[in-house]
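--- STAGE predict ---
source: upstream dedup step, 1 unique chain passed
mode: sequence only
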Amino acid sequence: GAPTADTAAIHAALRQECERLGRELRSRGVFASTLTLRIRFPDGRLDSRTVRLHEPTALDDALVEAALGLLPRIWHGERLVRALGVSCAGLLAGAPEPALFPLHGRQPNR
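--- STAGE serialize ---
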């Protein structure tokens, strides 16, 4: 799409990227311990920041929270953004913490 400086649009794109990343992590059965946010500006410049997560996770909301925490360190609300992406590193296999996949509210309807 066209470059935007609309906060709601940027937050929505960020959430969409984090949900895509979360699905990928869960499908591979791995947990991310760091998250990187990359933003490309219309002049072609790419800026990125990385944060270590409080605990390894594959949950969308935790990824979104981390990405939103990084956003103000790169983007200050007035510049147009052409594209953004999130990636992760420090992948851990298996469940370090069973609470990372809460089961409440996820029972199949039978």
